[in-house]
Amino acid sequence: MNTDSIQTPWINAAGLPVPPALADSIPGDSVPEPVYGLLIKNPVVREENPVTDITSDGMSWVWLFLISLFCIVALKFKNNSRYLKAVVSDLTEVRVRQNAFDETVKETSFLILLNVLWVCSCGILLWNTILQTVPNNIFNSFGIPDRPAAGIGICTGVMAVYGLMMCLGYWIIGMVFTDRARARLWVKGAAASQGLEVILLLPIAALTLNYAPWTLGLLETAAGVFVLGKIIFIYKGFRIFFNQISSWMLFLYYLCSVEIVPLILTYFAALQLCSMLL
User: Fold this and answer.
1) Most buried residue among 30, 210, 237, 255 by CB atoms closer than 10 A?
2) From the centroid of its chain, how far is CA 266?
């Protein structure tokens, strides 16, 4: 370590440094003696209450709710694969069950839990879809603020309304075009489709929260899973309701009014509600 002394600059009466060029013109008796020594830098003083850059914006609560719900479903499914087989049967079978023991309260509650998990997963995916399609900049004419927890909560609520309204619509259509038993079978098929989709949608939604560069590809994969589930469910409805050539026209009306339009309305409803976070 170099311990050579360092000479301080000349200081005038006001305590200001004097340039070396002017130092020679100062009378000798008015020039202070040079001070020699080591320069010691003051240590960095830590703040008592440092400001922490919090960017999670409540995302820990989102993770806590999602993990808790997953654990509940896992405990419900533990050591009983019969529940999953019943869900697959609800999606594919068109036979009206005659045996009261074919369906139990536990199977129904398991299906409801899967649908709640589906709503949460789709809420996360819908939020990421909005972020991908709308600029995340409040200075644009229309933007979405960077508040992920609140946005996911809004999108989850919108998806819950979507799920309930779709079940209600299926029930009404089933009661109009067929009997009560087949209408109930169709509604169960819709719930089973969503319950099976969540097996893939849940990990995809979790990945979108952790790996932002993968978001676009993950959303495309989730869209494929959603469309595949809808195709299987629509095929079941076709087997239940349509048994005439003229039914094809009704089938096209059904696709446009029941399956496509609600999705568009759901997206725009979530978009408007999320923009109100500004």
Assistant:
1) 237
2) 15
* Cα distance between residue 88 and residue 111, in whole Å: 11
Which residues, other chains included, contact 165 with Cβ-Cβ below 8 Å and sequence gap of 6+?
A: 262
Instruction: Classify residue 63 as exposed, middle or buried by CB count within 10 Å of its CB (0-12, 13-18, 19+).
Output: middle
Looking only at Cα atoms, what is the longest distance across the chain? Answer: 118
The pLDDT of residue 91: 82
Q: Distance between alpha carbon 153 and the CA centroid of its chain, in Å?
A: 8
The pLDDT tens digits for 150-178 are 889 999 999 999 999 999 988 988 888 77
Provide mean pLDDT across the span 63-92: 80
Helix axis angle for 148-177 and 105-133, nearest 10°, is 120
Token output for 211:
């790996």
CA angle 238, 241, 245 (to 5 degrees): 80
3-state DSSP assignment of residue 18:
strand
Name the residue with higher pLDDT: 109 or 192: 192
Spatial contact of 186 and 239, defined as CB atoms under 8 Å apart = no
Q: What is the pLDDT of residues 4-13, one digit of tens each?
A: 444 445 555 5
pTM of the model: 0.72
Identify whether the C-beta of residue 123 lies closer than 8 Å to the C-beta of residue 265. Answer: no
59: tokens are 């995302």
Sign of CA dihedral 34, 40, 41, 43: negative
Is the Cα dihedral 163, 224, 132, 153 positive or negative? positive
The token duo for 186 is 């169709």
